[in-house]
Design goal:
It catalyses: L-threonyl-[protein] + FAD = FMN-L-threonyl-[protein] + AMP + H(+). By secondary structure, this protein is α+β, with helices and mostly antiparallel strands. It contains eight helices and 14 strands. It has a domain of 127 residues: T-fold.
């Protein structure tokens, strides 16, 4: 999935902790073999390969892959396409753009966009099959798979080893179980959008948080800064400095919602969050000309804020 996972857990026996951590990492590795778009042998890429040149019959997929694709389709509809895992052809163009420092050619962008659209994926929950209705489509689960993997690792630790006091972090995606023994919550810092901007701290328990933005992943072409987050509807990397943090009961939701909230206009994004049970959002907008940061938060966000001066 193109990132590093970290696990923090509490156990009374060191050997149990070792076995549990290894099992959780094995589960994450197994999910990487299913959902990575960096590996040609992954189940996801083999699914895309089945429709590389023609629209063949539906393909039966694993429980994990079908679960993630179903969740992705649901959010795509709710966000009116602001979140869309069919952006794979566009992702490839922008990976090349970051290497060459050149924008995708208009004809390349048009050809890639013709293969993008969540309505081009057909899911059959009865047969658990997937069909891509345009040849050459490519799915990219980078905006949802990490959160799902963190959820699954936490679930394994809790259900198979009885270790509920744990945290799983996958770069900007963190899933929290019960807090450490002497604490009432896990303390998580949101990276500030600018060095001069004060950080925010969260108290989380049995919740997940995800932060997305262009703080570290971006490309500057022709004096314009383009984020690695793409708008599936235009095919372009986002411009304008925006950092989005979403809290939700599950990692799969927090992970994917950050991408939708990053793409949507602020008012529409806040409506999406308000309609999601247990979700909260914090948006920081940086004016690069003045250095000023505008902060916007959904009403539920305040309940997760922690005091900044606490150790």
């Amino acid at each position: 999935m193109g990132t590093t996972f970290r696990i923090i857990l509490y156990a009374t026996e060191e050997e149990v902790a070792r076995r549990a951590a290894q099992a959780a990492f094995n589960r994450i590795a197994a999910l990487d073999e299913i959902m990575s778009d960096y590996k040609s042998t992954s189940e996801l890429m083999r699914l895309c390969q089945a429709f590389a040149t023609e629209v063949g019959p539906p393909v039966r997929v694993s429980d994990d892959l079908f679960t993630v694709l179903t969740a992705a389709e649901r959010l795509s509809r709710r966000s009116e396409g602001a979140f869309d895992v069919t952006v794979g052809p566009l992702s490839l163009l922008w990976r090349h753009a970051r290497r060459t420092q050149e924008l995708p050619a208009p004809q390349e962008l048009a050809a890639a966009r013709a293969k993008v659209g969540y309505d081009k994926v057909r899911l059959d929950p009865v047969r658990q099959t997937v069909q891509l209705t345009v040849p050459g489509m490519r799915l990219d689960l980078g905006g949802i798979a990490k959160g799902y993997a963190a959820d699954q690792a936490l679930q394994l630790l809790r259900e198979e080893y009885g270790l509920s006091r744990a945290l799983v972090a996958a770069w900007g995606d963190i899933a929290c179980g019960d807090p450490p023994p002497t604490e009432t919550a896990w303390r998580v810092q949101i990276a500030p959008i600018a060095a001069a901007h004060k950080p925010r701290f969260l108290n989380l328990s049995q919740a997940a948080v995800s932060t997305s933005g262009d703080l570290e992943q971006f490309v500057v072409i022709g004096g314009v800064r383009y984020s690695h987050v793409l708008d599936p509807r235009t095919g372009m990397g986002l411009t304008g400095r925006r950092s989005v943090t979403v809290i939700a009961p599950r990692g799969i939701d927090a992970d994917s919602l950050t991408k939708a909230v990053s793409v949507l206009p602020v008012e529409q994004a806040l409506r999406l969050i308000a309609e999601t049970p247990g979700a909260a959002a914090y948006i920081a907008l940086l004016d690069e000309a003045t250095g000023e940061v505008r902060e916007i938060a959904s009403p539920r966000f305040a309940q997760f804020l922690a005091e900044p001066d606490k150790k």
